[in-house]
Design a protein that fits this description.
The protein is an alpha+beta fold and 755 residues long. 57% of the residues lie in helices and 14% in strands. The protein has a seven-stranded mixed β-sheet with strand order 10-22-21-20-11-18-19, with helices on both faces. A six-stranded antiparallel β-sheet has the order 2-1-3-9-4-7, with no helix packed on it. A six-stranded antiparallel β-sheet has the order 12-17-16-15-14-13. Helix 9 (245-255) runs parallel beside helix 23 (579-597). The longest helix is centred in the C-terminal third of the chain and has 38 residues, at 648-685. It is elongated.
């Protein structure tokens, strides 16, 4: 920046002196400026040559040197301004954010609570040694690797594994440092000093991975050698053919590749600015230009393709109690719970519009369950062994255990007055926009998409199948994620997307690391090249499209500028242009290509569909209706499974309730969608209109609901007979399956307009 200022002042001062006709002062000022910039540029070129790099700046060195030798000082000063301006712009474009991993270090504990007999003494973390017994209090980060020596540890290990579900670790079991105590205090016998612990290892991995990344090679230099050879050859021919060194100098002046030096950084800065307007932080021009060429995508699971916010997906009941009552009792107790699943259960109660009562005489056993009195009844919520320790292993319980194992869901049991009443099944749902975004990324040039997670393979494969990824890497610790990065980089330039501290090493090592920053994963943001501040995967698609368009405009500017320079070089070789006129002409070419480069600031058409206000509000309303209907959809399969165990009159009442829900809530909702939302969506999406298949699904839903209504209408007053159950089950299971799929399809579509 100092050189640029000096060059501009020198050019302006020389011009003023020239107009004032103050002797040769103007020439001396221009020559001085040219000489200073020449020395700086020459030293930079020499350093590059020693590293085996040939840059386009070498042409500028030859042009400035020639201008000084031949007395064309004004031309030399103009070249100096162009060169220093390009260098300053380029430095700004490629500067990377290299802050310390402050969040990672701040999260790391600085003190530990060492047990010394009956006393607990706070000691510096570096003074913890092998064999120490430490007390880990609620909310604290486990300071060192060890074994639980007293109590039960309930740990949130999402920072290490990405898994959102708290982990229970019993006495005598090993514990890794870095997890957060989500339960009661426990004692830990240290098996590794803090410097050798898991958490410290993650910090070292991030630093080592960042140091191993190759520096960004500027776009201009990729074409430097060929352009340099052509320029020198043409200048030599002009000198020989015209017997004039001035012609050779003019060739060098008009060849000074400022379009290469200026246009590419200008376009890339424009692309970075445009990304920033959409809440996307790109740490310099290098990552943006590299992202445009990426062909492999590696995704973390929890918090990246899933929401990391558990939701109740089904409510199973035992006996005659309704699912609404199970949710009401469970949510009433969970109002005073600190368990991570409490918000999900309360949200389910709100979606069902059930009225909660405030519990009394509440006692919570951290990580196991909570009990209390609700409306005079004793209610317990939590693990099966806590809520109903003597409950027999019935086929229904075995079915639930199998389902949770296969689907990767979690179960929260509910007992009322000591009897098992029901179970709530919770899952971390896939982001609605994720499948659509991944399909669009494939269309944009990503050839391979993989997913990596610390989850069990069965759970990971289910998510991978739903997303259509090419390969799933399951049960991978942070250091193993780094190995996965090394493996997939062999397939092409690799983008890694993650959101947690456990992803930071892989984000740092990948060609491009992208952090989902909305959840406060500061360590991941520090290690990443791109940070999506909005908690939506659409930001990845938008960034990729911005990067690709930016690189295309940069290349256009480079090649248009080179082409125009080549034409000017031919005229210069023929003696039609003087050195000063050549410098001015080159400046005009610079302005032209930079104006073209700045097109990267504009939209250039909708990179992601504009969310028109009318459609956005409608989509949000319909998505809200889905959330209120979803509990009823979950009840369909639950009712089908227990029809034969219900008293006949109770079964009839439940079936009639479902029929009324279809007629009063579900079918009006489907009609509203088809009459209001689908036409608008079809008009906006045009040739990509997906509403045709959705309309066919509506027809099938109406057919099944009509069939169900007739089956219920034909039931005898005393309730369904044995021969009625088969058809009722078939229709209920069919409606559950088609509505679950249909809601997922519509929510993916509505996610286009909600954000």
């Amino acid at each position: 920046m100092a050189l640029l200022g000096l060059a501009l002042v020198g050019l302006a001062a020389g011009s003023i002196l020239h107009l004032a006709r103050v002797g040769d002062a103007d020439r001396w000022v221009w020559a001085g400026v040219t000489g200073i910039v020449l020395i700086w540029t020459f030293s930079s070129v020499v350093r590059g040559l020693l590293r085996g790099e040939t840059g386009v700046d070498l042409i500028a060195v030859l042009a400035m040197a020639g201008a000084l030798v031949l007395g064309e000082y004004l031309a030399g000063a103009i070249i100096a301004v162009m060169l220093t301006g390009g260098a300053a712009l380029e430095r700004f474009a490629v500067a990377r954010a290299r802050r310390e991993l402050s969040a990672l270090l701040e999260r790391a504990p600085h003190t530990a609570h060492r047990r010394a007999g009956v006393d607990i003494v706070d000691v510096d973390i570096d003074d913890v040694v092998l064999g120490d017994v430490l007390v880990v209090k609620p909310g604290e980060v486990v300071p060192a690797d060890g074994i639980v020596s007293l109590g039960t540890a309930i740990l949130d290990e999402s920072a290490l594994t990405g898994e959102s579900k708290p982990v229970q670790i019993d006495t005598g079991s090993p514990v890794r440092s870095g997890g957060t105590n989500a339960g009661s205090p426990f004692e830990l016998r240290v098996t590794a000093p803090t410097a050798q612990s898991t958490y410290a290892g993650i910090i070292r991995l991030v630093r080592a991975a960042e140091a191993s990344k190759a520096p960004f090679v500027r776009l201009a230099d990729r074409y430097a050698l060929a352009f340099l050879g052509l320029t020198v050859t043409l200048a030599a021919l002009a000198w020989i053919a015209g017997e004039s060194p001035t012609r050779a100098l003019t060739v060098l002046v008009v060849a000074t590749p400022c379009p290469l030096i200026l246009a590419a950084p200008a376009a890339i800065i424009a692309g970075v600015s445009r990304a920033a307007r959409h809440g996307i932080i790109v740490k310099g021009g290098g990552p943006l230009e590299t992202l445009a060429r990426a062909t492999v995508l590696l995704l973390d699971k929890t918090g990246t393709v899933t929401s990391a916010r558990p939701q109740v997906v089904a409510v199973e009941t035992f006996g005659a109690i309704s699912s609404d009552d199970v949710v009401r009792y469970a949510a009433s107790i969970e109002q005073v719970s600190v368990h991570p699943y409490a918000p999900a259960i309360l949200a389910e109660a709100r979606s069902r519009s059930v009225e909660l009562s405030f519990p009394v005489d509440v006692r919570e056993q951290m990580g196991t369950g909570i009990g209390g009195n609700v409306d005079g009844r004793r209610v317990a919520v939590g693990q099966l062994g806590f809520v109903a320790p003597s409950a027999p292993r019935t086929p229904e319980l075995r079915s639930i255990e199998l389902r949770t194992a296969v689907e990767g869901s979690s179960s929260v049991y509910v007992s009322i007055d000591g009897s098992l009443a029901g179970v709530l099944l919770l899952q971390d749902p896939i982001r609605p926009e994720a499948p659509r975004v991944l399909r669009a990324l494939r269309a944009a040039g990503i050839r391979r998409i993989h997913m990596v997670t610390g989850d069990h393979p069965d759970v990971a494969e289910l998510v991978g199948d739903a997303l259509g990824v090419d390969r799933v890497f399951a049960e991978r610790a942070p250091e193993e994620k780094v190995e996965v990065i090394k493996l997939v980089r062999a397939e092409g330039l690799t983008v890694m997307v993650g959101d947690g501290i456990n992803d930071a090493p892989a984000l740092a090592l990948a060609d491009i690391g992208v952090a989902m920053g909305a959840r406060g994963a500061t360590a991941a943001s520090e290690a990443a090249d791109v940070v999506l501040t909005a908690d939506r995967l659409e930001g990845l698609l938008l960034t990729t499209r911005i990067a690709q368009r930016t690189r295309r405009i940069a290349l256009e500017s480079v090649f248009v500028g080179m082409g125009l320079s080549l034409v000017a070089m031919v005229f210069a070789a023929a003696g039609c242009i003087t050195p000063v006129a050549g410098a001015v002409l080159q400046e005009g070419i610079d302005v032209l290509v930079i104006l073209n480069a700045l097109r990267a600031l504009g939209d250039g058409g909708p990179l992601i569909m504009s969310r028109r206000g009318d459609v956005k509000g409608l989509a949000q309303g319909l998505a809200s209706a889905h959330r209120s209907l979803r509990p009823h959809v979950g009840d369909l399969a639950a009712l089908a499974a227990r029809l034969d165990s219900l008293p006949a009159r109770e079964a009839r009442a439940q079936l009639e309730r479902i029929r009324d829900m279809f007629e009063k809530e579900l079918l009006p909702h489907e009609r509203e969608e088809q009459q209001t939302a689908y036409p608008l969506l079809g008009k906006l999406l045009k040739e990509e209109d997906p509403t045709g298949p959705l309309i066919q699904t509506h027809h099938e839903i109406r057919r099944l609901t009509r069939l169900f209504g007739r089956l219920v209408a034909q039931l005898p007053a005393e309730g369904p007979r044995l021969e009625d159950l088969r058809d009722l089950r078939r229709v209920l299971y069919g409606l559950h399956a088609i509505l679950t799929l249909h809601f997922a399809q519509e929510e993916e579509l509505y996610s286009l307009f909600e954000g």
